[in-house]
Amino acid sequence: MKSLKDVYNLDFVESLTNAIKTEYPNYNRDVCHQLIFQRDWQDLALKKRMRRITEALYDTLPKDYPEALAILHRVDPSLKEGLSGLIFPDYVEQYGMNHWDQSMQALKEFTQYSTSEFAVRPFLLSNQEKMIAQLVTWSTDTNEHVRRLASEGARPRLPWGMTVPKLKENPYIVLPILENLKKDQSLYVRKSVANNLNDISKTHPDLVREIARKWYGDHEQTNWIVKHACRTLLKKGDKQVLAIFGYENDEAVKLDHFTCSNKVAIGEAIQFSFRIQATEDTKVRIEYAIDFVKARGNRNQKVFKITEMKLLHDQTKEYSKTHSFKNLSTRNHYQGIHTITIIINGTPKASLDFEVV
């Protein structure tokens, strides 16, 4: 199976250098290839391969940044798409810090093919006020990729992204960006806004609670953002956030007939089932949590959503579910006593132990 890093391969580099040669006849493709495909190439991870190509381009393109950037702008747009296209904003990040206007225009263009979300981070560190103002401007752009960049680039906890401490310390500075995007018609953009707010909820939950109360019910698109943004707080059973969405009356739901497998082997799945009954009309959020045994013998709980719905008085629902204990790249399983808990509207209702062998 191919690894993500393999988007940067010989075919891509040949296509890239051929395209540059077309735009810049004096370009030395052979030197660029030698700089890229050094002995350690196969061992380099995705971002290190990206940076190797970026540095090779710098060594073989004109040293005048605007001149080099103009050549990259003219390269075949298909080479700028997807993960492989990250080299273009990376070039701006590495060599364009002293050319603000040209770099902003380049990041705006390049993000429409791939993404410039990582490349804006050093600019935020260098001149936060100026970069935030630029992101606010981009948040009103007609292109959805540019609007998404405004939100994604300002995420406090951007995956794979350079840390910008002030975004974590003072998330209020990104709120004008999110306000502009809270009714965006693009799901691509709305996901980014929700992810930004979810990041904020991990350090400033009161701020996200305040935003959720203010925004929820305002607009269909906004409602979607708020619900997705509060997913971490909902999984934590945050009563204030649960109440915003109407999931506040756990006492109106009874749970019985809860059973689960006594034992499960790593690689297989446990089975569990239960029944709920409403004693009055109520909204219900049903989840289950598993306390997983970790490598050192300690346990860590993870919550999984089953469903959300409205139950009528005396209405019953039965559930039969499975949970896989197959090892994944993101999670290994370990032997020992685990616990499964059924959660109704944020409140644990019943728990059972089972053994993983």
TrEMBL record:
It comes from the Bacteria. The lineage of its organism: Bacteria, Bacillati, Bacillota, Bacilli, Bacillales. This is DNA alkylation repair protein.
